[in-house]
Amino acid sequence: MPEHLFSFPDRVQNFQIDHFRDFVQFKVCFRTAFNTCEQFKLLFKPVEFDMSPGTTPTFQQIDALKKRVIEIRNKAQSLFESGAQGLQIAAFLSESFDDFLVNLANAKLNEFPKALQQTLLQEGAIVAIGGTGRGDMAPSSDIDLLFLHERGTDPAFFEFVAQFVQSCWDAKIQIGNSTRDITTCLAFARQDPQIATPLVEARWLWGNERLIEKLQTQFKQRVLFSRRKKFIDDCIAAREVGWSEYGPPAQELEPDIKTSSGGLRDLHLIRWIGFARYGVKDIDSLRLKGAITKSDARRLKAAWEFLTRLRIDLHLSAGKEHDRLTRDEQLRIADERNYDSQNGQRPVEIFMQEYFHHSSELAAITRRFVALERPRSIAERTRDIVVGHRAEGMFYVSSDRIEVADRHLKSVCGSLESMLHLYKAAALYNVLPSPKVAEAIKKNLPESPAELSPRAAKTMVEIFQCTSALGPILRSMFQTRLLDVVIPQVTHIRNLLQFNQYHHFTVDEHTLRAIENATRFERNDGPAGIAYQEIRHKEVLHLAVLLHDIGKGMNTDHSVIGAEIAIDVGKRLHMPDYQIEQMSLLVRQHLVMADLAFRRDITDQQLILNFSRDIGSPDVLRMLYTLTIADVSAVGPGTWNTWKENLLTELYDRCLVILSGKRYSYHEQQRISSVKESVRTILQDRKVSSDAAGRISQLLTGFSAYYLTCTPPKQIADDLQVIVSLDDERVEVIASWDASTGSMEYRVMTANDTMQADCFHKMTGVLTAKRLAIISADINTTTNGVVVDSFRVIDSDFDGEPPRSRVVEVAQLLRKVLWKEITVEELFRMNRRFGASPPSEPASGLTDRVNIDNDSSDSRTIIDVFATDRPGLLYTLTRALYQMDVSINMAKISTHFDQIVDVFYVQEQNRTRLRGEERLRQIRGGLMEALHNFRQQDYRQFEKSSK
C-alpha cells in the first residue's frame, strides 16, 4: 500500500503512516494512539475513511502526475539553456505548478460524492504561502500550502487534504503543508514569526476565495498593524541569527543562495518589513512609497535576478533542491559561463567576485532598510533624551549613534573634509553615524580627489589613531564607500575572493576583521596586549593592517605590490617619511613572522639574527607581532590556537632581546632552566622515585632547545615518565584526543637507536595507510638516542573521537612496522579501498615546488615542499629523503585546503648540513621526481616494494 500522509491542525502534528498492509490494522493503531488524547477527542469526531475503488490512485494516474512534473522541469531546463532570465523561469515554474495543483485539486474533488463537492468548495480553500505564494520558485523548490477551512473540524476536508497531499508526494513534489482554520492561523502567527512571514505571501489557489480574503484582512489587523514593532522585531531577530555585532558577513565562501547573508532571504526580509510598514511588498511599490531609493531598487532587482538564476542553475544541475554554492559548483559554473582569467585572477574567482558584488550590495541595502524602518521603542527614545547631548554645534550624540539635524545635513555632506570630521567625532564618542546620516553620506559622495587636502589627510590619520572604535568606524566608511574616496586602492579588494579553504572570507571582509582583532588588543593583558599598548604610533599599525592584503588579485607577489601601494597611501595621507617606510616594511613582511614561527626552528640563533636585522627596531617588531596575530586570527574559525600563539610569542621574545636588550620573558638559557625546574616540580608532585629522578635529570640535558621551549612542561614530564621505562625492545605509542580541533595526537617513543634512521617515513606510511590525514608532525631525537615523534591526525573514518579499538589498531601497526614485522607497502595493499573514486582535481591550481635553504642555519639544511595534498604524499617525500641518505632532524607539516607546506630540517648521516651544489641539485631533483611520479600514479606506487 502506498505511503499516506494525513494532516490535522497544528495542535495535533502531522502524522505519517508507513506501509500498513492491512488498513484495518491502521485504523486500530490510529484510534488506539489518539483515543487517549483529550484534546483530540474534543476536536474531532471518529473519522471513517472511504476506501472504495477510485480513491487510491492507479499506477497510470501516478505515472501521469510524474510525467507532468517532469515536463514542467524539463521546460524550465530548456528555458535556462536558451538564456532566459531567472525571474522569467521562476514565473513559468510558479504558473505551471499553480495549474498543476488546481487541476489536481479538481480531480480529487471529483472523487467525492456530489453532495460533498459543493460543501468542500464553499468551506475550504488551498492557499499558496511562503515561496510558493511569492512565485519565487526553483525547479525543485518545496511547495508551501495552507489548507484553510472555515471550521477546521470537517472530516471530509481532512480526507480531501490527505488524498491531495499523497498525490503530490506520488508526483515527486516536496510539499510543506498545514491544515488550519483562520483563528488558529492568526493565533500561531502572533506567536511565531516563522508562521507569520509565510502568510505575508498568502495567495489564493483553489476553493472559496472569500476565506483567504478574510484571513488577509484579519492578518493585517491583528498580526501586523496592531503590533507592527513586535512583528518587525521578530522578523529581524529571526534573520539576525549568525550575524556579527556589526552585521551579517555577506562574504561566506560557500554561501547558501537562499539563507546566507546577502541571499534571497534578505529580499524576503525587505518584503516583510515593507508590508508591515507600508502595506506593499514589491520593490517598485516600496520605491514609490519612498522606502528605498531608485539606485537601491535597481541594485535589488539586479541581485534578485542574479541569485534567482543561480539558484535555478544549482537545482537543475543537482536534479534536486540544492541551494549551497559549493566550491565544486563554483568551478562548474565559472567554466560553463566562460569566465576568463584577468589580472592574475582565475575564472572562478572572477565569477565569485560578481556573486559577492550582488550579495554584499543586497546585504548592505537590507541593513540600511532595516535600520531606517525599525521603529525605536519608547525606552530607546527616552534613553536617547536622557543620555544624549549636542556636540560641536551640528551633532547630537546618543548612546549608540551620532545624529545630524536635517537643517545641518547638507552642510555635513557638502565636502570630503566635513564627512571625515563627522566620522572622527563618531570615533571619539565610540558611536556610529545614524542610518539616516550614513545614507546621506553615501548619496552625496564626492569624486576621489587626485590629492587629499592637508585637512582631509590629517583627519583621516587621526581616525586611524583611534583604537576600540576604529573597527566599526572603518566598516561603516567601507559600506558608505567613503573609505574608497580617501584611499582609492581599497576598491580593488572589494568582494575579492581567494579560491582556497585556508581563508574563510573575501579579502575585504578578512581585512576588516583583522582591524577589529588588532584593536581588541587594547583590552588584552597578555603578550599581544602588552606589545600593542606599547606601540607609539598606532596609526602606522592600523594602516598596515588595512593594506596588508591590498596587493592580492594581481600578477605579482601581493606583499611586494602591497608594500609599494603602502608608500603611495602614506604619501597621500601626508605622513612622515619614516612612518611610510615602517608601514611599507610591515606590509612587505606581514607573512614572514608566521612563516618563521610555524615552519622554522625558532631556537636557531642565525635565523633570529637575520630576521631581527630585517625588522630593525623594537617598535616595528611589536607592530609586526600584533599584525601577524590579527591577520592569522581573521582568516577564519579555528585558525588561531594556543600552539601558534606560543610559537609566535617565543619568536617575538627572542627577537625583542636582540633588538632592545629587553624581553617579554627572558633569555633562552634562563627559559630552559625555568622549564626544567617546572618539569622537576611536576614530577616531584607525582612522587617519582629517586632512581627515576636521577635518570630524568640526565634525559633533560639531552633534549633540544626547540623541544624544551616549545613543549608545555606537563607534556615534557609525561614524556619523561614514559622514556625512563623504555628499553631497547620497547616502542611506546600514546594517543590523546583533542575535541577542540577534532584531531588525535599519536606520540611515538623508542630508545632503540637502530630505528632512528627510517622510523619517520615508516610512521607516516602507517598513518596514511589507515587513511589518517596528517596535519602536523614534530620530530625530536635526544642526544641520548631517544626518539619522541608526534603526529596530529584527523581520522575521517569516524565522526568525533575514534573508538578505542581504532586507536589500539593504529598503535599496534606502528610498532609492527618499526620492528619490521610488516612493511608499509603491505599495509597499503591490505587497506586499499578498491572501487574508490579518484581524487578530484586540486582547486587551488598551484604547481609543485621544492625550495632548499642552505644559509639560514649553520648546522642543518632547510627544505620547503609546496605541493597538492594527497593521501601518501608525506610518506612519499620522507621515503625519498631516506633513500637519498638524508637524515630528517625536524619537520613541520601544515595543510591548507588541498595544499601542503612541508618543511624538513635535514642533515647528512655524519650530522652536518648538505654540502655542494651537486648534492643540493640531487636532493631537489629527487624530490621533484618523487612528486611527479606520485602525481602521475596516485596510489599505485604504494604497491611496489621498497628497496
What is the rounded distance between the termini? 64 Å
Mind summarizing the main beta sheet?
A: 4 strands, mixed
Low-confidence stretches: 1-54, 244-250, 834-840, 941-947
CATH level 3 topology of the largest domain = Beta Polymerase, domain 2
Annotation field: number of helices: 41
Q: Could you tell me the number of beta strands?
A: 18
Helix % is 40-55%
Shape: globular
The CATH first-level class of the largest domain comes to Alpha Beta
> In percent, how much strand structure appears in the residues?
5-15%
User: What count of structural domains?
Assistant: 4
- CATH architecture group name of the largest domain: 2-Layer Sandwich
Oligomer: single chain
Commentary on this structure:
- The protein has 947 residues and is of the alpha+beta class.
- The protein folds into four domains: 233 residues, Beta Polymerase, domain 2; 134 residues, Four Helix Bundle (Hemerythrin (Met), subunit A), CATH 1.20.120; 93 residues, Hydrophobic Seed Protein (Orthogonal Bundle), CATH 1.10.110; 218 residues, no CATH class.
- The chain has 41 helices and 18 strands.
- The chain has a four-stranded mixed β-sheet with strand order 5-4-3-6, with helices on both faces. The chain has a four-stranded mixed β-sheet with strand order 7-8-9-10.
- Helix 22 runs antiparallel to helix 24.
- It holds the Pfam family HD.
- This is Bifunctional uridylyltransferase/uridylyl-removing enzyme.
- Belongs to the GlnD family.
What is the strand and helix layout of this fold?
Blueprint lengths: L3 E3 L8 E3 L5 H12 L3 H6 L15 H23 L4 H25 L3 H10 E5 L1 H5 L8 E7 L5 H16 L4 E6 L1 H10 L1 H8 L2 E5 L1 H16 L3 H12 L24 H15 L4 H6 L5 H25 L8 H10 L10 H27 L4 H10 L1 E3 L3 E3 L3 E4 L1 H7 L3 H14 L2 E2 L1 H9 L10 H11 L5 H11 L1 H5 L20 H13 L7 H8 L3 H10 L10 H15 L4 H12 L3 H8 L5 H11 L2 H16 L8 H19 L7 H18 L4 H13 L2 H6 L2 H11 L7 E8 L4 E8 L8 H11 L2 E10 L5 E9 L8 H15 L5 H8 L17 E5 L7 E8 L4 H11 L3 E10 L2 E9 L9 H21 L10
Parallel strand pairs: 4-5, 9-10
Antiparallel strand pairs: 1-2, 3-4, 3-6, 7-8, 8-9, 11-12, 12-14, 13-14, 15-16, 16-18, 17-18
